[in-house]
Write a structure and sequence with these properties.
- The complex is a heterodimer of chains A (327) and B (346).
- Chain A is an alpha/beta fold.
- Chain A contains 11 helices and 14 strands.
- Chain A has helices at 12-26, 50-54, 66-78, 97-111, 138-142, 155-167, 215-225, 245-255, 270-281, 304-310, 314-325, and strands at residues 10-11, 30-34, 59-61, 82-86, 118-123, 148-150, 172-177, 185-186, 200-203, 208-212, 232-236, 239-241, 258-265, 291-295.
- In chain A, α3 (66-78) runs parallel beside α4.
- The radius of gyration of chain A is 19 Å and the shape is globular.
- The longest helix of chain B has 26 residues, at 19-44.
- Chain B has 346 residues and is of the alpha/beta class.
- In chain B, α1 (19-44) packs across α2 (59-67), α1 runs parallel beside α4 and α1 (19-44) packs across α11 (293-312).
- Chain B has a single domain (15-314), classed as 3-Layer(aba) Sandwich (Rossmann fold), CATH 3.40.50.970.
- Chain B is built from 11 helices and 7 strands.
- The chains are: A alpha/beta (327), B alpha/beta (346).
- Bound molecules: thiamine diphosphate (TPP).
- Residues 79-80, 128-130, 157-161, 164, 186, 188, 190-192, 252, 256 of chain B line the site of thiamine diphosphate.
Chain lengths: 327, 346
């Protein structure tokens, strides 16, 4: 896994910055909109240095106005721009939900107008952010037609998926996990490349498949590494919408036992959809019940002991694997 | 000049309108009313599904405002603004086919009633959520400013919509960025059943000053007066002086939709506004100049009769098309340019 590599590398965060820089150099239609993204470089410094290179006309510090950030991005997009919006934290996308779900997502179906916008969502927990700085809001958008939803786990995918998202003619929600920003690094190709909106097999195996995305890919990998005697496959979904159904079904056919991990709250999480897909289309390949590991349906608490008690852990995932391997 | 019914604003000959423009303004208002009357009739006959809304009594605001815009200036109309679509060049037949849910109506059966917009003609159709399209207009205007294009973006909304948070976000962001946007408040006294007095204590035009932008009030039933303030707002926008809030005072003469008997509107209020009908006002002006307004009305009726016949003959959408087109699969086609009938653009 890349986080162990000693070669020259970029962090997950640097890879995202690099994607923005490459896209802006290549295409002057690309503009950035967000709060404190200019001089300050964003709450997480993802846009650090971009104001200096591209100027205040393309790196636009906005008032605090999530609806207006996304809505004006849609407006700019329908007259030919390629806006990329930053939510300061993914949690604040709730304030922009209407523009995303009702305007951006339905525009092409209703009016034949494409809205090529990207909304970047620094998401996820694990560092005492509390109920409003730790959420994984992806399911809100999965239920809303017309949107694409991406969630990279590696630096290379973060850059390639973001570049592909900016090039895509549709609205894309881009979940970048805050807990991976500086923890994950890896070799990242120079210049422009596009990562497909499809799943990636992180690790081969044929006794059991763990299906995960985002930060949970790393948590799952740690759990799997603690079970060296088992042949466990790890599938990183990367794209939540569109969902790579073929890759999921193929993994189930090969492995017959499935653990699905979401950092998001349990009910109606992506894992529920994956579970339903498998039950509908690969039931006859299952040798055991599907096991889901997710955050229970509670807000994310602040105190580290409480947060650890709800977020899926290495131990919980390993326990789920153990249970299934013995089934 | 004759003294027209309602409003001193029209006493002087308008500086920027030729006689052909003044006739065109009347014609678009007549067309707006005739298309909606026909739509309402088709609705009552059970041929138009869903619900039906019109802009009766408010034709001057959308027609006058859109008439002041250039071909490349997009508009985001709202539910009372059929005239904006017509001025931009969407043919009445396509509008009627849209009401009827036909395959070749403006939205191919995907949208109904007033929720539509022919993007190829520079009309960005509304969504229901009020006033979401204001921020979309701000974004279009922002793009024009960044690219150094001499264009502006216009958004219409009612008095009720000014109570929603997006209204503030749009006004404030537009002002801070000094984008070439025009916001047109159609102050028609009611938001569904809620009178303006239950919507706000201070007229929203007063808020413009707090955002640091001009707020201009105009008689929304005087099509030439509306044209003039929007023409000025456009000049201001294009000169780099930022957005303008135009408050057009008018009256919703029908219910919120055809389903609404509007029992909450006092009859005296309707009677008072009936005397200020925008079409009557412009007709009197032009009749005094010797224009045959009856012939104009007959001509509009014939056009709508023909458009209705054609729309009714159009096919319904293929049910298989219901699940297509959610995503754009090719290169996006940006919002296009519509008509710009004002002589000032010739
Ligand atoms: C955010 C939102 N809430 C509720 C509605 C339902 N609704 C549709 S039109 C309307 C009244 C709108 O009044 P106003 O903005 O004054 O426009 P008018 O109908 O008078 O032209 C309401 C409440 C809506 N469209 N959007």
């Amino acid at each position: 896994m890349e986080r162990l590599s000693l070669m020259p590398q970029l962090t997950y965060l640097e890879a995202i910055s690099d994607a923005l820089r490459v896209a802006m150099r290549e295409d002057e239609r690309v503009i950035l909109l967000g709060e404190d993204i200019g001089e300050h470089g964003g709450a997480f410094k993802v846009t650090d240095g971009l104001l200096a290179e591209f100027g205040a006309e393309r790196v636009i510090d906005t008032p605090i106005c999530e609806e207006a950030i996304v809505g004006s991005a849609v407006g700019a997009a329908i007259v030919g721009m390629r806006p990329v919006c930053e939510m300061q934290f993914a949690d604040f996308v709730a304030c922009a939900f209407d523009q995303i779900a009702n305007v951006a997502g339905k525009l092409h179906y209703r009016l034949g107008l494409a809205a090529p916008i990207v909304v970047r969502l620094p998401s996820g927990g694990g560092f005492s952010g509390g109920p409003y700085h730790s959420q994984n809001p992806e399911a809100w958008f999965l239920h809303s037609p017309g949107l694409k939803v991406l969630a990279p786990s590696s630096a290379e995918d973060a850059k390639g998926l973001l570049l592909a998202a900016i090039a895509d003619p549709n609205p894309v929600l881009f979940l970048e996990h805050k807990n991976l920003y500086r923890r994950v690094r890896g070799e990242v190709p120079d210049g422009s490349y596009a990562t497909p909106f499809a799943a990636r097999t992180v690790r081969e195996g044929d006794e059991l498949v763990v299906i995960a995305y985002g930060a949970m890919v790393h948590t799952a990998l740690e759990a799997i590494e603690q079970l060296p005697d088992a042949s466990i496959r790890l599938l990183d979904l990367r794209s939540l919408a569109p969902l790579d159904e073929d890759a999921i079904l193929a993994a189930v056919r090969d492995c017959s036992k499935v653990v699905i991990v979401d950092e998001a709250n349990y009910t109606c999480a992506l894992g529920a959809q994956v579970s339903s897909l498998i039950a509908e289309r690969a039931f006859e390949y299952l040798e055991a019940p599907i096991v889901r590991v997710a955050t229970p349906d509670v807000p994310i608490p602040f105190a580290p002991v409480l947060e650890r008690a709800v977020l899926p852990s290495v131990e919980r995932i390993r326990g789920a694997c153990d249970e299934l391997l013995a089934y | 000049m004759p003294s027209p019914a309602g409003g001193a604003a029209a006493a002087a000959a308008p500086l920027h309108l030729e006689q052909s423009d003044r006739v065109a303004l009347l014609r678009f208002m007549l067309l707006h009313r005739a298309v909606e009357d026909r739509g309402a009739s088709l609705y009552k006959q059970g041929k138009v599904p869903g619900s039906f809304y019109d802009g009766r009594g408010q034709e001057a605001t959308c027609v006058g405002a859109t008439f002041a815009l250039a071909a490349a200036d997009p508009v985001c109309p709202l539910i009372r603004d059929l005239g904006a679509h017509l001025v931009k060049g969407t043919p009445p037949r396509d509008v009627l086919a849209h009401y009827l849910g036909r395959a070749d109506g403006v939205s191919h059966g995907r949208e109904g009633n007033v929720h539509f917009g022919d993007a190829a003609h520079g009309v960005v159709g509304m969504v229901s959520m009020l006033p979401d399209m204001m921020v979309v207009a701000v974004g279009m205007a922002l793009a024009f400013k960044l690219r150094g294009e001499q264009r502006c973006a216009t958004s219409f909304f009612g008095d009720g919509a000014t109570s929603v948070g997006d209204w503030h976000e749009a006004m404030n962001f537009a002002a801070v960025m000094q984008v070439p946007a025009i916001f047109i408040l159609e102050h028609n006294n009611y938001a569904y059943s809620t009178p303006s007095a239950r919507q706000f204590l201070v007229d929203p035009v007063e808020r413009a000053a707090a955002y640091g932008i001009p707020g201009v009030s105009v008689d929304g039933n005087d099509v030439e007066a509306v044209f003039e303030v929007v023409r000025e707002a456009r000049e201001r926008a294009l000169s780099g002086a930022g957005p303008t809030l135009v408050s057009a005072q008018t009256m919703r003469m029908h219910g919120h939709g055809l389903h609404d008997d509007a029992r909450y509107v006092p009859p005296e209020q309707l009677a008072e506004w009936t005397l200020r009908d925008p079409i009557e006002l412009q007709s009197k002006r032009l009749a005094a100049l010797g224009v045959d307004v009856d012939a104009l009305a007959a001509d509009v009726k014939a056009e709508v009769d023909k458009a209705t016949e054609e729309a009714l003959a159009m096919a319904l959408p293929d049910p298989a098309s219901a699940t297509t087109g959610v995503f754009c699969l090719g290169e996006p086609i940006p919002v296009g340019s519509g008509d710009a009938p004002w002589s000032g653009f010739r």
